[in-house]
Design a protein that fits this description.
The chain is mainly alpha-helical. 60% of the residues lie in helices and 10% in strands. The two termini are 30 Å apart.
Length: 177
Amino acid sequence: MLELAILGFLYDTPLHGYELRKRITALTGHVKPVAEGTLYPAIKRLETAGLLARATRPGSVAAPRHVLTLTEEGGRELRHRLAEPAQRDITDENRWFTVLAFLRHLEDPGAQAVVLRRRLTFLEEPASFFYEGDKPLRAEELDDPFRRGILIVARATSKAELAWLRTTIDSLDGGGG
């Protein structure tokens, strides 16, 4: 997720590490804050792999800054990760939002629709957070108002996302809405 976010933000524009960290935190920070001890090793791995390039530029007020840019290989890698996200990137909501944040960089509407269909298929499978034996429990079957709340909110969120996915897939397929 972190590497995808780094590649995605740098696809848009060159950034220095501090600005990149701010953008990633804005995208994922409410769930998983990005520590310098996590970000900079990830940047170094991507740089070592030839996906990023680093240039030193004068700072506006302070010391010179290291500005990161995406290489051509980095752009290809980003598009590959978007076109073929891991199953966990489809099923985990936070990872999915990171994919979704950069899916526009896949320029082929058909390829975008394929990724959205994978998420649609996942969401259409019946699921629950709570079970009685092997039987998934519905909100109406729970006496606990807090667990019932989780299922009610999840159902509403899934319903909204399903509607958006179907409309967007139809639009990408040329249905126009």
